[in-house]
Amino acid sequence: MTFFGKQDGDVAGAQSCTQTSTPLPAYLRDTYTWAYLNPKTVPWLSSAPVVAAILWGNATRLIRETVKEIEPGSKVLQAAAVYGRFSTKLAQAVGDNGRLDVIDIAPIQVETARKRVAGMTQAHVMIGDASVARSTPYDTVVCFFLLHEVPEEMKKKIVTALLDSTRPGGKLVFVDYHKPMQFHPLKPVMSKIFDWLEPFAKGLWDKEIQAYAPQNDDVIWTKETLFGGMYQKVVAKRL
Ligand SMILES: C[S@@+](CC[C@H](N)C(=O)[O-])C[C@H]1O[C@@H](n2cnc3c(N)ncnc32)[C@H](O)[C@@H]1O
């Protein structure tokens, strides 16, 4: 549900997950049906061992790096569904006194994510578009491996909307791909995989995540890289 360009999580959350207020974007349908929209592949691709393999054994470390930014009792937005144990780890980190809202633009992903956090009353999964700011800001917003899957213009919209969805004093955490060091043994492999399957990913090899954000003196950006530069964690702290 969109009001004046902002989305209200609770209202959107009340929708059936067979409906969506936003049509599926072309980049998702055209490029990622095999990964995120096909009911035959989603169940096995979403399993933790597959995620571990796709991230070259770094899933646990990358999730841990994200979770350590979460305060118990805080209100957290996860900007898109993530396979494996990511949402359950975030829900555990906010604890019973916090709240985790997970949004995803694809109904099948909302359904899958709901099953993953079933029984965790602090976790709420709903249809939503990460490129539209939420109506109520969050203490922490996390964007885990979404940016590399969207075209350049969408990267800008998502970074801008997620900054607007973060309260002053709060933080926005990105974990995603980054250009590996020059002689990284997996660099040629990743380059081929991106050219074949992930046409928008190399945007993050060429450009800093901060460069997708509007100029704003009230945001402090920090970045660290992991696994020989293949991954990055960028934290935007709103003053
Ligand atoms: C977070 S990314 C991938 C994360 C990780 N690679 C994995 O395998 O789980 C994938 C999700 O982003 C969702 N997505 C794509 N564009 C979106 C948008 N504009 N707003 C919210 N969700 C979006 C897709 O439906 C998909 O479920």
Tags for this model:
239 residues, alpha/beta, 7-stranded mixed beta sheet, two-stranded antiparallel ribbon, 10 helices, globular, disordered N terminus, binds S-adenosylmethionine
What does this structure look like?
This protein has 239 residues and is of the alpha/beta class. Helix content is 35%, strand content 23%. The protein is built from ten helices and nine strands. A seven-stranded mixed β-sheet has the order 5-4-3-6-7-9-8. It has a two-stranded antiparallel ribbon with strand order 1-2. The radius of gyration is 17 Å and the shape is globular. The protein binds S-adenosylmethionine. S-adenosylmethionine binds next to helix 2 and strand 4.
* Helix-strand string: EEHHHHHEHEHEEHEHHEE
The count of β-strands is: 9
**Main β-sheet description:** 7 strands, mixed
Mean of pLDDT: 91
Q: What spatial form do the alpha-carbon principal axes imply?
A: globular
Structural class: alpha/beta
What's the arrangement of strands in the largest beta sheet?
5-4-3-6-7-9-8
Spans of at least 5 consecutive residues with low confidence: 1-5, 9-20
- Rg estimate, integer Å: 17 Å
Count of DSSP H/I helices: 10
Fraction in beta strands = 15-25%
Bound molecules: S-adenosylmethionine
Helix content: 25-40%
Compute the separation of the termini in Å. Answer: 29 Å
